[in-house]
Amino acid sequence: MREPGFRRWKAAAALCAAVIATTTVTPTAASAGQAPHLDFQVEVGVDGVSSATIHAERYTPTGRARGVQVMVPGTTYDHHYFDLGVGVVSQARQAAREGWVVIALDRVGTGRSSTPPAASVTTAVQVASIDRVVDRIDRMYRGLPIVLVGHSYGSVVAEGVAAASDKVDALVVTGFMYRRTPPSFEGFPALTPAATDPVLGGRNLPADYLTTAPDSRTFFYHLPNTDPATPAADERTKTTTTAAEVPGFAQELTGQTYAKAVHVPVLVVVGEYDYLYQGDDPTAFEPDQKNAFAAATDVRVHLIPNAAHDLALHRNAPFTTALIDRWASSAVA
Q1: CA–CA separation, 222 vs 165, rounded Å?
Q2: Rounded distance, CA 76 to CA 110, Å?
Q3: What DSSP designation does 11 have?
Q4: How far is it, in rounded angstroms, from Cα 46 to Cα 61?
């Protein structure tokens, strides 16, 4: 950890008033909104995976960069979660407009990244591979702070990387939280073989790769606050998971192993209709996160109204992204 300074948290009203930040113009590799492809070849050395290719999309600001946000998607999502392109403002593109270099990843086993045998697509492989990617990003952007931004299972992976790496300056956890009582998974989409799925069946994926059952992803949304085109686009761009990585989510939810080892500032952002939040004691929400991240230099929490699990894909996503970007700017100042 580089021990960045930390300024006091700004009021939510101020965050809402500044959705798009203005930056000072300096030369950059690409203009805001462009997403050049990046492919990182990294050593892994975990669970039978010696090396892997991690695909990413890069978004660069037109002005002076505040830092680098490395975005890590959740189960059955790849970089499209952060840049769906339909029905919602892209979190990745908005963050670039607000002054951040954004690198949105496809984790191992998803998108255009390596697809090893299903039994080797584990949480340990995810953490190790992205830890190596962060090392590469640190060399690419020397002097710029690095903020990990996870979503759902990607938050678990991001926590693991933040716990292991000395290159991470701040951590944003979205769509994941800690609680004293177990959440309800009632209604969670069934996981079915990717080989027989209408979207993924023709991609020649390894045996035993899984995905969500067709047209079941509305579970992740608060539909009254969702553009009707968004779930359909989500279905078209969905990707895979494996039985081997599923335990990592549950183990971190209950054991808090990664959270306890995080020493950088942490922001936890959850939607009020997220299945992980439903049934929780509202008064325990903030204390439970602070207890889980007890070693972090600072822990802030925010509940987003009128949103469910997929925070970046609701109509109020620009507010959520602005909140994250302003907090990140404070955390690494």
Answers
A1: 35
A2: 7
A3: P
A4: 35
Give the integer Cα–Cα distance in Å for 270 and 285: 10
How many CB atoms neighbour CB 225 within 10 A? 17
β-partners of residue 267 are: 172, 300
pLDDT digits (tens, 9 = 90+) for 184-200: 999 999 999 999 999 99
Element (H, E) at 116: none
Structural contact between residues 43 and 132, judged by C-beta atoms closer than 8 angstroms: yes
pLDDT digits (tens, 9 = 90+) for 213-252: 999 999 999 999 999 999 999 999 999 999 999 999 999 9
**Residue 278 contacts residue 183 (beta carbons within 8 Å):** yes
DSSP notation for 145-207 = -EEEEEETHHHHHHHHHHHH-SS--EEEEES----SSPPP-TTPPPEEEGGG-TTTTTS-PPT
Q: What is the pTM of this model?
A: 0.90
Structural domain boundaries of the chain?
A: 24-331
* 232's tokens: 């359909």
What SS3 class is residue 249? helix
| 70, containing H or E segment | strand 67-72
Q: Are strands 191-193 and 49-59 parallel, antiparallel or unpaired?
A: unpaired
Superfamily of domain 24-331: Alpha/Beta hydrolase fold, catalytic domain (3.40.50.1820)
**What 3-state class would DSSP assign to 38?**
strand
pLDDT along the chain (333 residues), means of 10: 37 30 29 70 98 97 94 98 89 96 98 98 98 97 96 98 98 97 94 97 96 98 97 97 95 97 98 97 97 98 98 97 98 96
Widest distance between CA atoms in the chain? 51
The 8-class DSSP code of residue 272 comes to T
Encoded amino acid at 190, one letter? A
Contacts of 163 (CB under 8 A, 6+ apart): 258, 259, 261, 262
What angle in degrees, to the nearest 10, is found between the helix axes of 153-164 and 246-255?
70
Q: Which residue has the tokens 């990617």?
A: 133
